[in-house]
Predict the 3D structure of the following.
Amino acid sequence: MSGKPPAPAAEVGWELFPHDADTGVLGRGRTIEEAFEQAALALTAVVTSARVEAVSRVLVECERKSVELLLVDWLDAVIYEMSVRKMLFGRYSVMIEDGHLAGTLWGEPVDVERHAPACEPKGATLTALAVRQEPTGLWSARCVIDV
Amino acid sequence: MNPSAFTRIDPVTWRIEPRGTMRVPAIVFGDEELIRGMDDKVGEQAVNVASLSGIVRAAYAMPDAHWGYGFPIGGVAAFDPDEGGVVSAGGVGFDISCGVRTMIAGLRDRDVKAVQHELADALYRAIPAGVGSTGTLTLDEAEMDAMLDGGAEWAVERGLGERRDLTFIEENGHMRGARPDFVSKRARDRQRREMGTLGSGNHYLEVQSVAEIFDEGIARTFGLELDAAVVTIHCGSRGLGHQIGSEYLKDMASAAEESGIAIPDRELACAPIRSDIGQRYLGAMRAAINCALANREILGHLTRKVFRELFPQADLSLLFDVSHNTCKVETHVVDGKPRELYVHRKGATRALGPGHPDIPEVYRSVGQPVLIGGSMGTGSYVLAGMPTSEEKAFGSACHGAGRAMSRHAAARLWKGRKVVDDLAARGILVRSPSSRGVAEEAPGAYKDVGAVVLAAEEAGLARRVARLHPLICIKG
């Protein structure tokens, strides 16, 4: 789906997991922040298999007490920026402190010819939602995206 | 699902008796093969819904049910505010008032086939579809409020639709009780340039021909004849509805956690109907219903313009416009008494039986038209509500074929180009900006819509009237 194979469970990376009507995104990282960044890359892969250039930068912020609802907020923030700016993003950076997330998104306007976007994410759901440290020591962040 | 987990009431009705925290039974409709084909999650989710406060009679799953978030897609549940009933953002879905409209073209399928490529290209140019597309309208705040309050009626008043359509849209094209002031700035931002856009995923515009008639009398009342050309549009409230759904889902989850409300699963996030957040969600959701009704009216208007250029004699008349992701206040008779209930239909269509006062007068004697979208290759169905629809599932029926596999699996199995070529060889022209999007929506990724509608008929939910065969499909 991504143009590259899913990352093995012991490595930093992302993957898509199946859901009947929608699609699940999963990111793994050495920190929660990195897992959130990888989950956002999986979200981009829901839309396009093509490379997305880092032409311009967008800043987002969200705040939640629950780290899991913060993941949903973060992915929803990315979806919002995709929707209103008609952009796709290929690189993400996340900082979290006391339930406050500051994210940076790098991307470019949608190019229908080049990106051939498959579908439009509507929102992140609470289905299969989890943020946890795996036995490998890596953090994982996952949920189902309504598409 | 394993049918042995259910009590079999009849060949198409399966019941899970109340147990544990369940307040009412869960009832799933479908023949044994459809039940076996459903993910176990459908049963689990129906059981969870049956545990919610104030639920009345049963939690239902339609024959096209599949794993959703919180509620199963194809789920129906009614709640009584007098008994602590709840409203759930997940029980409506993110694409609020997603629905289907079918217009009768006043042409024969041979007329369409004579200009099939030209018509497909013209529709593809005229209908904004897919990720990154925008409509020709940009709404300022005053117009946004007017649209959220007025629905399809707003579109007609702006010259983007026809007044005669309104009779044939649920709620006469205007959902009362909308509260645009409960719609966030972010939701408005997402919609500002999206009026009159189709979207992507399973949304489509199809030109179809009437391939089979099951009930001559009802078909005549609906204006459907064999080989007649029709246009069917499937889409919803676009970014605005998605944003409202996302925001209230999280807010309801947070509110439930903070107030200690016990829900079987966090994704069932809900709030009492008689609560501040419940009322705010209902007001915003009704505004999103108006957005969807306006959006489909504008898409119908754009379609008419294309047809009139190619067929000056064409007069597209609206057969009906139904929504399948809603929560509506309806009166239903339960144990002999009329009660005002909040009926959630998530991936389920309202299917009012003959005589119901909310059905347009010309259709009232035969039942409400129920429009069921299939896949690109297999066609769609027009059904009609039955006298038994009310007692079976609060006047509800299925909404589509239901996916047989995930998008992920479909994209691995099929290539979009080949799907387009194979369908073209069968006389079905597909126009889409995305090859992968077509692969994810390949006909084989869906269940047999014929089996789904047959089960709906046998279950007494809605009867089959006509089958529609696709000729042109515009996908986002």
